[in-house]
Amino acid sequence: MLIKTIHNWELPEASATPEDVFLNRRQIIQAMGLGAATIGAGALGVSKAFGAPDPTMDLYPAKRNEAYKLDRPVTDEKLNLEYNNFYEFGSSKRVAEAAQALPIRPWEVKIDGLVEKEITIGIDELIRKMGIEERLYRHRCVEAWSMTVPWSGFAFSKLVELAQPKSSAKFIRMETFNNPEVAPGQKPPLLSWGQSLPWPYVEGVTMAEARNDLAFLVTGAYGKPVAKQMGAPLRLALPWKYGFKSIKSIIRFSFTDEQPKSFWEKILGNEYGFYANVNPAVPHPRWSQASERVLGNNKRVPTLLFNGYGEQVAGLYKDLNLPDNVLYR
Ligand SMILES: Nc1nc2c(c(=O)[nH]1)N[C@H]1C(S)=C(S)[C@@H](COP(=O)(O)O)O[C@H]1N2
Ligand SMILES: [Mo]
After folding, report:
1. DSSP run (H or E) holding 327
2. Using one digit for the tens of pLDDT, what is the confidence trace for 28-45?
3. Domains of the chain
């Protein structure tokens, strides 16, 4: 019974998704005229609700940091704009239109908890203070599909520096907006066994992970401010972890000495853990993680340990002595 109920809320497109279903859906989207034209408002950084241009537009395109290279082509922008996981706006991949309702200005980011001084800062001031660069990253969803994205943003370590954490801080807990009025996914219904979804979406990292060079706070993609459906105005990119760790539309960073419990961990803790590092050898309880479907060409390729970023991040976990089902799920 429990398994059947959980089924309604599992991440919907597991590795088993037949490619023809996916392709058919894209054709339907195009036939309905819901392609680039509709979705373009977000892509251009124009807020549909207010029609105002993005106040940081002048910073784009940001200079590319050539230290971050890809082993495969960049995913077509249109595909990235039409295929999203953003449960606040529904459990399908087609949330781009619904996400345009999210007001992204004004947008304040709060930094609190175990820090020298709490800070609340407007997103535009934060972006200008941090400065932005472009990096090409792979992205591997726990559902066994992947893509590559030209993100713009700044190193997470810069925000940690700004925050001036106390030495007692061990983790950073991040939180997405909670606004059921614009995000229909955040309204009840409750799960059938009486539990409501644990909004807001929460994610967490260790201090060492946040300070790792690869941890990137995203403000843009494809040479312009990031589209709403992709997590505007501020999201995370942790390319060595499953995609659900890369929390979107962040409003708060809390420094803490307690390991945060993430959104998916609260719902299905035996399937989605805190670390969630990519490992082809550790299957998800319901499907294999050995390979992935590359969006765009729909070819299956082998998945790499730490999504190919082991050289930069394997050291973070060496001394933790945690079992595989904790580090890689
Ligand atoms: N707030 C929030 N962040 C989120 C999600 C979400 O549903 N809500 N989905 C996650 C998952 S499962 C993935 S794969 C990525 C998807 O990012 P994309 O839509 O830009 O590809 O966002 C992650 N961040
Ligand atoms: Mo994901």
Report:
1. helix 324-327
2. 333 333 333 334 344 444
3. 26-328 (3.90.420.10)
